[in-house]
Amino acid sequence: MNPVRPYGDTLGDGKVQLSFTLPLDWSEAADEAARQLVAKMGFTEVAVSEGRSIASGFSFFVVYASTPVSVDLAAIAVTSLRTHGLSMDEIDALVRARVGRKLRIAGACIGTDAHTVGIDAILNMKGYKGDYGLERYKEFVVFNLGSQVSVEDLARFAKENAIDAILASQVVTQKGSDIQNFTALSELLEADGIRDRTLLIAGGPRMTNLLASELGYDAGFGRGTLPSEVAAFIAQRFSEHR
Amino acid sequence: MNPVRPYGDTLGDGKVQLSFTLPLDWSEAADEAARQLVAKMGFTEVAVSEGRSIASGFSFFVVYASTPVSVDLAAIAVTSLRTHGLSMDEIDALVRARVGRKLRIAGACIGTDAHTVGIDAILNMKGYKGDYGLERYKEFVVFNLGSQVSVEDLARFAKENAIDAILASQVVTQKGSDIQNFTALSELLEADGIRDRTLLIAGGPRMTNLLASELGYDAGFGRGTLPSEVAAFIAQRFSEHR
Amino acid sequence: MELRIDRAIVAEARRLAQAIVEPVSAFIATHSTHSVERAVLRLFGADGVGSDEAPVPNLALERIGSVRLASGVARWIGAGVAETGGAPSDMARALAEGRLDVASFDNVPERAARAALAPHVALALGRIAARREERRERLARLPQSPPPLLYVIVASGNIYEDRTAAVAAAEAGAQIVAVIRSTGQSLIDFVPFGATTEGFGGTYATQENFRIMRAALDDVSERLGRYVMLTNYASGLCMPEIAAMAALERLDMLLNDSMYGVLFRDINMKRTFVDQHFSRMLNGFSGIIINTGEDNYLTTADAVEQAPAVLASQFINEEFALRAGMPQAQIGLGDAYEIDPDLEDGFLFALAQAQLARQIFAAAPLKYMPPTKHMTGDIFKGHLIDAMFNLTSVMTGQTIHLCGMLTEAIHTPFLADRALSLENARYVMRTARHLGDDIELKPGGIVERRAERVLREALALLRRVAEMGLMESIAAGTFADVKRAPDGGRGFEGVFARAADYWNPFEDALASAGLSSVAG
Amino acid sequence: MELRIDRAIVAEARRLAQAIVEPVSAFIATHSTHSVERAVLRLFGADGVGSDEAPVPNLALERIGSVRLASGVARWIGAGVAETGGAPSDMARALAEGRLDVASFDNVPERAARAALAPHVALALGRIAARREERRERLARLPQSPPPLLYVIVASGNIYEDRTAAVAAAEAGAQIVAVIRSTGQSLIDFVPFGATTEGFGGTYATQENFRIMRAALDDVSERLGRYVMLTNYASGLCMPEIAAMAALERLDMLLNDSMYGVLFRDINMKRTFVDQHFSRMLNGFSGIIINTGEDNYLTTADAVEQAPAVLASQFINEEFALRAGMPQAQIGLGDAYEIDPDLEDGFLFALAQAQLARQIFAAAPLKYMPPTKHMTGDIFKGHLIDAMFNLTSVMTGQTIHLCGMLTEAIHTPFLADRALSLENARYVMRTARHLGDDIELKPGGIVERRAERVLREALALLRRVAEMGLMESIAAGTFADVKRAPDGGRGFEGVFARAADYWNPFEDALASAGLSSVAG
Ligand code: B12
Ligand code: B12
Ligand SMILES: Cc1ncc(COP(=O)(O)O)c(C=O)c1O
Ligand SMILES: Cc1ncc(COP(=O)(O)O)c(C=O)c1O
Question: Which of B17, C136, D156, D448 is most buried as measured by Cβ atoms within 10 A of its Cβ?
Answer without folding.
Answer: D156
